[in-house]
Amino acid sequence: MLEQLLIHQPKDPIPFMINHLQRDNDYDGAQHAAHQTGSGAPVGRGLRQAEVYHTTFDWPPESEIQKRLMVPAGISEGETALKLLEYHRNITRILPSYPKILKVIPADQPCVDVFSQALTYVQSIHRSNAPFTPRVLLCGPVGSGKSLQAALLAQKYGLVNVCCGQLLKEAVADKSKYCEMILPFFEKETAVPDSIIMKVLSQRLDQQDCVERGWVLHGFPRDLDQAHVLDSWGYKPNRVFFLNVPFDSIAERLTLRRTDPVTGERYHLMYKPPPTMEIQARLLQNPKDAEERIKLRMDLFYRSAADLEQFYRQAITLNGDQDPYTVFEYIESGIINPLPKKVP
Hints:
By secondary structure, the protein is α/β, with parallel strands linked by helices. It has 15 helices and nine strands.
């Protein structure tokens, strides 16, 4: 703040004045000494806390106080310039040490506004109600309800919902630096290499909200190799849940999904049927929701599930074939309570 004041007050290079208040029994002598020396109230025994004034923004209205003000040491134009030079020389090396929590606030504004912005920033970091910062991994076959459970966790605990597939789509849609790397695989409908996935995923997991609030990850890893890659990059979940759902239930959830090509509205022929026959007649099914492709994707997951469960030895396996809010209660309990000790 001193720097900003000096810059905007070039005619007044010494903007601060200090009022040294004396105890009653020392005041008369101190005042006399001040008049004799012309330097304001001298520093001596019996000083109370000094009041700081500013010649432009906070000048005392009482003439008595004005007369006893003195200029504090160390704020001349030359001294201040040296301090600013040292500050700017060092600050460029300090700031990179706090890349995930740094908040830059312009100080060239009223102190109340600076304080308000700082307070807002501090209060905006919502911490989880869990006894630690959750890093949750949800595993399960397609249609097991991972996305819904992740959304519920994000809503209640303030965790960041990190869907791996969605991150890749957003990277392409936003034309990010990874767009050209991902797009060819999307066009060929082939799997994106793990190395590219991890670059996109790490960029998200390293952001401040994930570090401070925790995250819930789903869609990756899907096999043991991906689990090793995730671990080697330093992203170690402290809660892992496997959602098991039989094929018949997943087929019912996915094969009956439809999309209205006109409005983009999504329907489910059993749980959310279209309101009219006209809409129903034009509904389309995503090829990925065909029963054959669902079965293939389930087989791929369960082929790797045993290895994943072995890798994440503290994982909690849940029955995902029940009311989603019941499943959520089990997940919530697994986050809040200590992990159960497994017998070898």
